[in-house]
């Protein structure tokens, strides 16, 4: 009896060139940029343009981060100690298994 494991499509979600977690980052930056543009619009057209430019710059930086670090960036821990088990000698195991043959 086996159990089936659903592994998905094995591809990240892509939206306008952004993948996976970077979609959430871009939505956050766009939302904050719209709010900043609305607040800065109190200073006139120039203020709202500054807010929209900051939003565009933030999205651009997210694209650059995605290209530089990728979707699955991992932090490296150099303080780890790796212990590798001794490899088994398969020849000894196979010799013991073959020597116990039954004869008819």
Secondary-structure blueprint:
Layout: E1 14-15, E2 18-19, H1 21-40, H2 45-69, H3 90-98
Antiparallel strand pairs: 1-2
Helix pairs in contact: 1-2
Q: How large, in whole angstroms, is the Cα Rg? A: 28 Å
Helix content: 40-55%
- The total count of helices amounts to 3
Work out the strand percent.
under 5%
Strand order of the biggest β-sheet? 1-2
**N-to-C terminal Cα separation, in Å?**
34 Å
Element string (H = helix, E = strand): EEHHH
> In total, how many beta strands?
2
State the low-pLDDT regions, or none: none
Q: Please state the average pLDDT score.
A: 77
**Secondary-structure class:** mainly alpha
Major β-sheet profile: 2 strands, antiparallel
Q: What is the molecular shape?
A: elongated
Task: Describe the structure concisely for a colleague.
Helices cover 52% and strands 4% of the residues. With 104 residues, it is mainly alpha-helical.
What does this structure look like?
With 104 residues, this protein is mainly alpha-helical. It is 52% helix and 4% strand. It contains three helices and two strands; from the N terminus they run E-E-H-H-H. It has a two-stranded antiparallel sheet. Helix 1 (21-40) runs antiparallel to helix 2 (45-69). The radius of gyration is 28 Å and the shape is elongated. The model has no long low-confidence stretch (mean pLDDT 77).
């Amino acid at each position: 009896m086996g159990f089936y494991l659903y592994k998905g499509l094995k591809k990240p979600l892509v939206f306008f060139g952004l993948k996976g977690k970077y979609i959430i980052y871009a939505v956050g930056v766009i939302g904050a940029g719209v709010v900043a543009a609305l607040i800065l619009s109190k200073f006139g057209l120039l203020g709202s343009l500054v807010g929209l430019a900051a939003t565009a710059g933030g999205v651009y930086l997210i694209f650059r981060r995605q290209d530089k670090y990728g979707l699955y960036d991992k932090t490296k821990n150099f303080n780890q100690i790796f212990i590798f088990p001794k490899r088994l000698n398969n020849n000894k195991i196979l010799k013991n298994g073959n020597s116990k043959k039954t004869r008819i």
